[in-house]
Amino acid sequence: MTCRSPYLQLDPLFEDWPAGEVIHVIHDTAYPPESFNPGVDGAGGLRNPARFAPIRDLHGRVVPYLYGGSTLDCAIFETVFHNVPIDAPVKFVDLDDFAERGHGQLVFRRSLRLVDLTTDGLHRLTVPNAELIASPARDYPDTTRWAEAIHRQCADVDGLVWMSRQRDRDRAVVLFGDRVGTVFTGTRIGLPLRLNNALRQAIVAAALRAGIEAD
After folding, report:
1. How confident is the prediction for the chain on average, in pLDDT?
2. CATH number at residue 130
3. pTM score > 0.85 for this model?
């Protein structure tokens, strides 16, 4: 299934993320947790697409972005377990691959205006969850077009929010770096994974619940 194209005029549903409510990230500890992905590689080309990034603004500029989740478990599932197929007969994650990743928390000094991509919002946009949220990576070039259309049509929107595909008990968010600016602070929660037993135990506990081997 491929994702349909966004409409010329969208009618999105908006949701406010309250000031002070934490967004959790699992980030590369070479950078602060509040660092936005620039969306381009060293040669200036677009990086491989994620579901809603990278995108370009109305003037063709690449929009920096940052992914996070409403809980630490959501951030773990969206990063550490992101490439584990749910129907795989054997599920394994090598934690050495994430040795330099760490847990960060972001707190905003103002509320964020987000486009709601949960069931209510998808009904308004008339696009099925299976196409926009649950589609495989091969459809990312199509799903990013929705994020780009929303960014271009909604000048006051800071990002998108949806129920995490990886952990559908929690909300996932992507924030637009050209909209959010510096209205938030980031805090490192402990050391990188290779030196952070608390984070390792949180990952192992989440893996155990999901039937994933993590070592």
Report:
1. 95
2. 3.90.175
3. yes
